[in-house]
Each structure stands twice: as structure tokens, then as C-alpha cells.
Amino acid sequence: MLEMRDIRKAYATPQGPLPVLDGVDLSLAAGASLALMGESGSGKSTLLHLAAGLDTADSGEITLDGQRLSTASEPARAALRRTRLGLVFQQFHLVPSLSVADNLTLQARLAGRETPDWSQELLTRLGLAEMADRYPEQLSGGQQQRLAIGRALAGRPALLLADEPTGNLDEASAETVLTLLLELVRDSGCALLMVTHSARVASRLERRLTLSHGRLLAEEAR
Amino acid sequence: MTERGAPRLVPHLAMARTALVTLLSHYRRHPGQLAMLLVGLWVASALWSGVQAINASARDSYARAEALLSPSLERRDGAPLSYADFTTLRRAGLAVSPLVEGTIELNDGQRLNVLGIEPLSLPAGGIGEDRSAGNDGEDGANPLGLLQPPGQTRLAPETLATLNASPGERLVGAGGERLPPLVIDAQLPPGTLMMDITRAADLLERGPRIDTLLLAAGSQTALPAAYRPTPAAQGLSPGQLTESFHLNLTAMGLLALVVGLLIVHAALGLALEQRLGLLRTLRALGVPGRTLVGLLAIELVLLGLAGTLPGILAGLWLASVLLPDVAASLEALFSASVGASLSLPWHFWAGSLAITLGGLATAGLGMLWRTARLDILALGHAQPSRADGRRRYRRQAGLAALTWLAALGLWLWPTPAGTPSLIAGFAMVALALAGSALGLSVLLGAVLEGLKRGLPGNSPRTALIRWALADLQLQLPRLQLAMMALLLALATNLGVAGMVGGFRLTFLDWLDQRLVADLYLRPPPAAYDSWRDWLETRPEIATLLERRETDTRLIRAEGERPVALQGISPDPALTASWPLLATLNADRAAAWQSLREGAALINEQLAIATGLAPGDMLTLASPTGPFTTQVAGIYPDYGNPRGEVTLTVERLSQRFAAKPGSMGLVLTPGLAAADEAALRQRLTRPLPEAGEAPAPSLIDQRSLHRQARQVFERTFAVTRALTGLTLGVAALALFTGLLAQARERRARLAPLWALGLGRTTLLGVTLAQLGGLALATALLALPLGVALNWALVAEINVAAFGWRLPLHVFPAAWVQALGLAVLVALLAAALPAWRLWRAPPRQLLEEFSAS
């Protein structure tokens, strides 16, 4: 599903290039789940952005579903994100001017993959069916993140990339959101790559990798 | 479309559609922004297309007038043309046709141009072209209709409407003569009656003289040596004469367009800023950057059409309201007849749409550029950093300085003597206004920073003021475009009000100096001498001031130019007050003495256009050969679009065969009211000594004053309307700008409320912030307004009309502008402030939590 080989990435700073990823190799099979852990600034989010085609690596090769991201054009990477990926961010990034129902189906519609039954099921399972006509600002933080998860899964992506999806939530909401996320990922059959600080959250996923100073440490199996 | 491409298109279209709907959904949640955009576009296109509709209608009238009279011939010796010339030229094989023209007065006092044509010899391709097609319908297309009794009086539909007459009706002249029945002819310019030459010559008492010989276009037959084609500049066409007037209108329309587009720019900037997060989310969800730019461009077009089309319709309404005043001004100033109803060619619609959409595209270019360069990874960082703001201010300050330098460069750029360029003048003003607008927020920001730093102490009041100043600094980027609009509108108002006010003072003074007679009499030409002889015997009249006029050409080494020629009686009653701008050795008495001895005075327009100065020699074409004389002085001649040479009336009669004109009657001092009334009565009846000649027309000085003032007021009615509307647009910009960010303002004020400040205090702070900002903007607009006033009177007026006005400043207008600015700001702030004041505590609490 996702293959990353010898990925290197540095950011330009006034003091010179700052290496963030230094020869990272990572692979994720279809339907598998992987937690990516590490200190702040260890390069987790950068790795996620590279996997999503939001950024490009300085060197190395990234293949998603057999397609080489490293050499793909911007429109091709956009098309891949639209049709094969689901993204969940810590800050939700919902569209304030669209209703809950429209936010949920947004990516699926953009990709031309909307399935009304699946959307309705997602709304119900996420506990948002009664709020379909509301706007994001009228939801609690937990509800907003559930909606963001629904939006990411509505198009039935092959890979879900989640960046600290529970980082902005209280403990109870975080637990609910995480349980739902894992359930839905399992039921939809997509792979999951999640960036998290939390060992407790990471322990719920099949595999755990830790990034430190731009390099992957040994993998811990669950 | 390739076979491979076709199946891909459908999902792409679906994606584009969904993304577009998502982008547009922003306006559903922010209707204030949508309203601001549409109102900006609506107002900009309304004012611009209104002005263009006026210009297009006037130009259509000019085109119809010009189509009537070209090309034509004249005698080389300058003698008037007669039927003998017509016969000579026809015999020589030239397809010429005689034409007489003049003005008649109807029994209701209306004056109209009369054209007398000879339908059978009229060249094809001119005024008779589609009349010779055998169409003898109601529009009078049959040329024989003019000849067959009772003949025809053809006129444009607008003229018929103005006269409140109907086809077939017969107009009656001031002397009781009946004109042939009216027939509509849409090709004629407004204010013109066309008829057979014999009827016209009778009406105009023209005798055997004809005014022009029209020549068939493309005629290959050589002209006899005694004739030549009328030079193109002979008797400037209405289009040429009024060019400056229309350029001024266009400049005003352009200013309104710019101010309107500032609103649009502000709204687009706000819409983009608030949608940065959305744009990045869409990019993250797989919408390519190029698609997003394309979709925003589509959004711009949709908004453009939604705002511009009703704007153009509103512009048409505005034009129909203003056109009668414009038509009256053009008639009075340039004798150019313009229909009082709109007549718009197709390119008006296309042009109005293109200019407004082009302006929108320019305003939206920044939005598209920022979208194209959007940093997809900076998700959530919608606000530009403080360092970004500082960099932008520095760039803006640099650009403002460069723009001002360019304006100064244009001012100092040497132009050939006596030929100031109108375009350069407008460019200078535009650059100065743009430079000031660009520098405004930099200056305001610096003032706020200075005030903040200079605040002494740490009392609660000081803390609040310091917060208010800092908050205003934060608001400045959002409000700067509205403030720019306010600055431009105020400066233009001050500049134009100063120019118009100064012109009024100068013009009325000048009118007093020139209109020294108590009564002005214009006898029928045939009875002129009899009236003069009779008046010279009357004890009620102390001085008789004769005036005649004609046209000729000024002969110079670089070519000939047409000039008006007038003859006056240099009596001390007239010369004592007649203003002179320059004389030889600054000796007024000597200049008048020189005039009496045969020298000439010239008007300021001619002096500026030709560089002629007192002491120079000038040569005029006259029927008896070139006439050379010295320039004794230069006089101001406001309102006259043409160069003019003044001689004594005797000299004019002898050398130029000038037609009889008018007489000014200075009444004997101490004349009893009854005697004056009896004299007035007598002057309205025919003179028995003059045979059957009708009564002269009589007008008194007060009526002339009133008429001149009316012309003046009507001339500037449009200017005042446009500057007033521009100020209204600026107020709207401020209002919509405040409304659009009202929600965010509340979010910023909510913490203060939570910290214990009452809503009334917050309301006061908000109003004080806006009022203060507007006051500071108005204070900066004052010097800019004076500079604009100076540029208008000393540069643009000279280039446009050929005369210079003294600079007058009106401190009362400054105070009014300051008050107006504060009032506009307070009115604009009133609704958002009212909403804040009415906001329930729960809402403020929610906004506090959100903030």
C-alpha cells in the first residue's frame, strides 16, 4: 500500500539546512494500521505530509498503491489524495460554511465516489445524524473531530492518514473518537497511518514506530 | 478532446462543481461580504457606465451633426459664397450643393438651428443618402417632399419631443411666420431643423448669400483656382470642441470606478483571508491548485456579471437624470446640440461590461495570485504574521514614494511652450492621488504607533486608550482600502469644490466687468443701422456699445488656425472695467489706445495656444487680403472654447464684412424709472424707420447675469453630482468594510467585556476609534484637496479649456469636509456598534470562548 524508501528531507533555515528526515524506510500493507510516535520536531508530521503528497522529499522514493509519489506532478498527487487517501488533522479543518452533512460528503463528492448509504451510515455511527443540518461551529470539539473522520472515510480511501486526531480532545472524547475511528477503519478495510504522542493511543494500533532525530527506531510489535 | 481525455473529464467536472459550490458557500454564511462585493461592483459600474452613456449619447449627436456638413468648399479670397459660385462650380462639373444655416427663434422663445439644403443637388453619401432611395414613407425619405408644397421641416425625434409637437404640425417663428409641416428624420442631430434652402433663406433673411457649398465625397474633378476645400479645423466640429468636457467627465467616472473597485478589492481580500483555511483544506482533500485558481476566476466572473449588469442599468438611469443638464451645458458652452434622451451604440454595452469586469479582474488578480502561491502545509495559519505586515508596509511606503516622484516628474517635465497636455495633467493628478492613497495606511500606522508610545502614565484610562490604539493598528490593514476610498473621495470633493467655487467667484467678477450695459439689443440685421441711428438720438441712453462678430483664420508660419473675431466699442464705459491679464509695459490705458488705433486684443485661450504676447504681430485672413496688426493685450475669456481676437467694431466692419451683431445700451445716470420702462417698451416694438423688419430682441443685464449663472450652475451640476456620489461610495466602502468584519470585532471586544468593561464603554471606544481614524484621514485629505484644486485650475483647466483660474481656498469647505468624514465614519460604524451594544451576554461569552 505505502512504501517509503530512504526518505531524506531538510528545511532551509537562516543557519543552514535543518535535516528532519534522514534516510527513513517505511512500509504499510493494505488494511494494516501503524502508529508513528516521537518527540516534537522528530519529523512525524513531515513524514505524514510526504506520504500524503502535500510535500516532496529531497531524495528517496515514495510509492502509494503502486504509484510513485516522488515523481508525480502536483495535479497527479492531488488526484491521488482525492481518490485514495483520507486525511484527519488535529485542528479538524472543517468547512465552516457547509453543513455537517455537506462537510461529511465533501471529499467523496470531490472524488466522485459518494455513496449515499455509506454516508448515512457514517453519520449515524458517528452520532451526527441528528445534527446533519447544523454547522461546524455548532458542534463540540469531539463532534467536530468525528465529523472530520467521517469526511476522510466517506470516499472509502485506501489509506487513512491521521495527524494527532485526538490531540485536541479531552480524555473521554478522545477515547470515543479513537474507538470509532478504529472501528470504521477496520470495517472499511483501509490502512491507517497515525501520528501520535500518546503511547496509550499507539497501543491500540497493530504496529508502532518511533522517529527520533529524523531516523526510525526499531519497530515495536503489539 | 482525445478519446483518453473524455472519460476523465466527467469526474473532473464533478470535482470542480463540488469545489465551486464549497467556495461559494462561504458567501451564504457571510452575506455581508457578498453584499459588499456586489454593491462595490454595482456602484462602480453604475457611475462609470452612467458617464459613458452621457458621453456616448453626446458623441452620437456630434456624429450626426458632423455627417451633415463635410466635406465643403470656400472661396480662397474669403468672400462669402453666393449662388453665382454654385452655378460656376456646377458648370465646371463639380457635384456641389448649396447650404445655408443659422438660428431662428420660435414664438415661444426657443431657438433652433436651421439648415437649408438643395435636395436635388445634394451629394450622395451625405445627409441625403438614404433619402434618395425612393422611400417616401412617413420619415420623409423622399427628397422631393422638401420641395413640393407645403414643403417639409425635418427634425430628429428628440427635437420633436423637446418641442412637444407632433408630426405634421407647423411651427411658428418669433415673427409669426409658419414653418413647413414637421417630418421626423432620425439622422438629424438634435436641435436642428432641416428644410428646402429657399424656405430657410427666407426665414434667416439670408438673401442670395449661401454659407457652405457641400462637395460630393471622393470628387475627382479639379477645383477652380478661386476655391479650396474648407480646412478641417475651420469651425471646429462639436466633437473636437467638447473633447475636453468629455475627458473631464471620463476622469470623474474613472475616479468613481476606482473608488468602487477599492470596495471590491477590500471585499475580495477579506473573502480570501477568511477562506484561506478552506482553500488549504480543499487542496489537502485533493483539489489541484490550478483548479482552485480557475474556480476562483469563475467565481469572479459570476460575481462580476451579477454586480455589473444591474450596475449598468443603474448607470443608464443616472445618465438619463444627468443628461438634460449636460446637454444644456454643452449647448450653452459650445453651441453643441445634444439630445436629452439616451442614444447608445452597441459598443457602449460591451465597453461598460469590459471596463468593469477588467477592473474586477485587476482587483481580483491579487486574490488569484495568493491562491496560486498558497502554502498548502501552512494549514490553519490564516493570518499573516506581524513581520509580513511590516514588510507590506515598507513595500507600500516605497511604492507611494515612487508614485509621488512620478507625479512630480510629470509636473516638472518640460512641455513645449503654451501646449500643456491634458492627458499629462490627468496622469499627474492620478499618480498624486494613487501615491497618497498608498501612503495613507503607512502614515496612519505611524501616527497610531507614535500616539501609543507617547501616552504617559498607566491609569485605567491610558490603558484603555493604549489598547484602542493598538486595536486600531490591528484593524488598519482591513480598513485601509475603505480609508483610501474616503481619502480619494474627500480630496476630490475638496479639490473640485475649490475649483468650482473659485471659478464661480472669478466668473461672476468677470461677468460684472464685461456686462457694463444695462440693456442688450439685437436688432434684425436689415434694421441694424436704423436702430443704431435712432438710439444715438435718444437722451435716455448715455453710451451705445456696439458689438459685431465673425470668424476668420489666424495666419502663422506653422499654419492657419480658426479664430473668432469680435468688434467692440472701446468706450471708457466698457474699457474702465474690462479686465486685461497682460499688456505691453503693464499699461492698460496704452493698450486701449492701441486698440482704438487699430491694434488687437486676444483672449487668454489664443495666447496660451499660440504663445502670442503683447507687442507681437498677428495676421488674420480677411476678404481684402491678410490683415496684420499688433497684439495690444490679453484678456480673460471664461467659458469660451475658441481663440478670439478683438478689434474695434469699425475696423471689423471695414476689413472683415462682419454681420451686424448686438448693441449694449448704457442708460443715462439718474434716468427716471418711468422713462426707463417706456424705453424698454419701445425697444420691444418694430422701428417704423426700418420698414417691415420685425422687432429686435431685448435682454437686460440682470437676465443675462441670471442666464450666465444658470449655465454655470448646470455646467457643474454633473461634476457636483459625481463628486457627491463618489463620497457616497466611500461611505459605503467604510460601512461595508466595518460590517464585513463586525463579527471578528466582537470577538476582539468580548475579552474586554469579560475583563469588566461595560458595553457602553466599548461602544464609545469603537465609535471614537472610527471617528478618529476618519478625522485623521480627512486631515490628510485637506492638503491633497488643495493640491488637486491647484492642479485643476493651473494645469488641467489650461490644457482643457485654455484659460487659467486664480487659486481660491475655502476654509469653510475644509471644516465641512472634516465634519463630513467623521459623520460618514460614525454612520458607517453605527450599525455594527448597535449590534455590539444589543448583543446578549451569552453571545459575547461564546465569542469570548471562541476567541
From TrEMBL, chain A:
Record domain ABC transporter: where: 2-221
GO cellular component, one term: transmembrane transporter complex
GO molecular function, one term: ATP hydrolysis activity
The UniProt record lists the keyword Transport: yes
Pfam families listed in its UniProt record: ABC_tran (PF00005)
SMART domains: AAA
InterPro entries registered for this protein in UniProt: AAA+_ATPase, ABC_transporter-like_ATP-bd, ABC_transporter-like_CS, ABC_transpr_LolD-like, MacB-like_ATP-bd, P-loop_NTPase
Claim: Transport is one of the keywords in the record: yes
SUPFAM superfamilies: P-loop containing nucleoside triphosphate hydrolases
Gene3D superfamilies: P-loop containing nucleotide triphosphate hydrolases
UniProtKB keywords: ATP-binding, Nucleotide-binding, Transport
Similarity-based family: Belongs to the ABC transporter superfamily. Macrolide exporter (TC 3.A.1.122) family.
Protein name (record): Putative ABC transport system ATP-binding protein
Organism encoding this protein: Onishia taeanensis
TrEMBL record, chain B:
Membrane topology: Multi-pass membrane protein
Ranges annotated as spanning the membrane: 249-272, 292-319, 346-369, 396-413, 425-448, 481-503, 721-740, 761-793, 813-834
InterPro entries for the chain: ABC3_permease_C, Membrane_comp_ABC_pdt
Domain of life, source organism: Bacteria
Name of the protein: Putative ABC transport system permease protein
Compartment annotation: Cell membrane
Organism: Onishia taeanensis
Key words, A-Z: Cell membrane, Membrane, Transmembrane, Transmembrane helix
GO CC annotation terms, alphabetical: plasma membrane
All residue ranges annotated as the ABC3 transporter permease C-terminal domain in the record: 252-363, 723-841
Location, primary (coarse class): membrane
